[in-house]
Amino acid sequence: MDDCVFCKIINGDIPSTTIYEDDDIKAFFDISQVTPGHTLVVPKKHVKDIFAYDEDLAERVFKKIPMIARAIKASNPKIIGMNICQNNGEIAYQSVMHSHIHLVPRYSKDDDFSMHWGDNTGLASNEELQKRADNIKQHLEA
């Protein structure tokens, strides 16, 4: 897309610090550097979000995540963990509408990155949970 910042980065119209690139993806530092080494893995094909991937593209993009994550971790002995996030839609904090995966190295509990997971344990009955599961299952593609 002409106005997509990630497409412009992929095309070389906007500079980036690239750490990996092949025919399918480009991995480059997020400009915000939430933590040192914060990397985005972006498919070169413009897809808006996870819902727009076909099986082939998903395989080609997501199979590279472990390799890139291991390289980031190996690059700094102070990295003790990593968050891998893929947001879909504004409600889920997607700010650029070109699919991307965040690899956020973690150095300590005080490294200025956090996620909050609400705990709704016990709010739904086993029957309600099964009904939700059955509803999702009927929409799975084989």
UniProtKB/TrEMBL annotation:
Q: Which residues form the HIT domain?
A: 5-113
Q: What are the GO BP annotations of this UniProt entry?
A: nucleotide metabolic process
Top-level taxonomic group: Bacteria
The active-site annotation reads 100
Query: Coiled-coil region(s) at which residues?
Result: none
Instruction: Write out the residue ranges of the motif Histidine triad motif.
Output: 98-102
Enumerate the Pfam families for this protein. Answer: HIT
Q: Which GO terms describe its molecular function?
A: catalytic activity
Q: Which InterPro entries is this protein grouped with?
A: HINT, Histidine_triad_CS, Histidine_triad_HIT, HIT-like, HIT-like_sf
Supply the name of the protein.
Answer: HIT family protein
